[in-house]
Amino acid sequence: MRKLTLFLAILFVSVLCSACINNIAIQELNNKAQEYMQKGDIQSAICRLESSVDLDGTVFETRYNLGVAYISAQDFKKAQEQLKEAIKIKPDFADSYYSLAVAQESEAMKLLEDDANDETSVEVAVVPDGEDEYSDLKNISEQDAKILIDLLHDSLNSYNKYLELKPQTNDRSDVEAQMKYLEETAYKYALKYNLAENVGTEE
């Protein structure tokens, strides 16, 4: 499967002074978390950010940064939860949708790897005679194929929102190429597992 090429563009955002009126400790915790991230100590960064959320869960920068930290820790489900909370607080911040798309895509790819490595849970799809378009696809259960397709569609929608909010972004061609790959991957798995009704994206 194609590797993620966009992940390095995800960065922490600094906490604005206006967001810290209620508790200056939030800014200190976020700054410390950023220092830990730069040193590669992801778990310490997550601990600081979780403490910051406990103090005030309405600070956008904390939620966003915690989502980014969870992506670095490869805990993609928690990353999505935090990024969705960040989007509720500040829905027009384009990079939140980009980061969410990466988390959704990464969870989909992780599901593929985990399921394909667990041979006892794999239900091999029946491939029509003479068809080799599925040769590059991994054998996964039908249930996980449905989850995979949904995650890929969610990722596509998030990337679309990112481009909508940031139409002049320098990485537009890279994002569009990644979206094309995700769309093709979702389509192939839908065909392989007879899940044609799952093909397509929603606005």
What best-fitting shape do the alpha-carbon axes yield?
elongated
List SSEs in N-to-C order.
HHHHHHH
Beta percentage is under 5%
Give the helix tally. Answer: 7
What's the pLDDT, averaged over the residues? 82
| Strands, total number | 0
Please describe what this structure looks like.
By secondary structure, this protein is mostly helical. 62% of the residues lie in helices and 0% in strands. The two termini are 26 Å apart.
Short note summarizing the structure:
The chain is mostly helical.
Provide key terms for this protein.
elongated, mainly alpha, disordered N terminus, single chain, 7 helices, 203 residues
Give the helices and strands, then pairings.
Layout: H1 24-39, H2 42-55, H3 60-72, H4 76-89, H5 94-117, H6 142-165, H7 172-192
Helix pairs in contact: 1-2, 2-3, 3-4, 3-5, 4-5, 5-6, 6-7
